[in-house]
Amino acid sequence: MKLNISFPATVCEKLIEVDDERKLHTFYEKYMTTEDAAVALGEEWKGYVVQISGGSDKQGFPMKQGVLTHGRGCLLLCKEYSCYRPMRTRERKHKSVGGCIVDAVSVFSTW
């Protein structure tokens, strides 16, 4: 899983790839906007607290806040919602989005 860890105060961003499943297991079953200690990623992250803010699965479907599932769900989206940009006014469309719970299918997470 690739992790994009950013610190907005200093505009610093770091992309790391974690291959060890045991390190990531502590973040599974967590919701978006959940804060957790980053010590599970290694000793260099000791003392840091990370907040899960998004991500996508292996096929590229984005995680969406409010979809309380592990996998994907199909929603009727319009202009007011993220994950869809209509071409016409008042246009709505069914789109697949990922749930807001981190699991083993997630490939890329933003913290």
- Report the total helices: 1
Q: In terms of per-residue confidence, which ranges show pLDDT below 50 for 5 or more consecutive residues?
A: none
Helix proportion range: under 10%
Largest sheet entry: 4 strands, mixed
What would you call the structural class? mainly beta
List the secondary-structure elements in sequence, H or E.
EEHEEEEEE
How much is the radius of gyration in Å? 15 Å
Organism: Ursus maritimus
Family: Belongs to the eukaryotic ribosomal protein eS6 family.
Keywords: Ribonucleoprotein, Ribosomal protein
GO biological process, one term: translation
Structural commentary:
The chain is mainly beta and 111 residues long. It has one domain (2-110). It has 1 helix and 8 strands, in the order ββαββββββ. The chain has one helix at 21-24, and strands at 2-7, 12-17, 35-37, 49-51, 54-57, 72-77, 93-98, 106-110. The strands form 3 sheets. It has a 4-stranded mixed beta sheet, with no helix packed on it. It has a two-stranded antiparallel ribbon with strand order 3-4. It is elongated and about 50 Å long. The chain starts with a strand and ends with a strand.
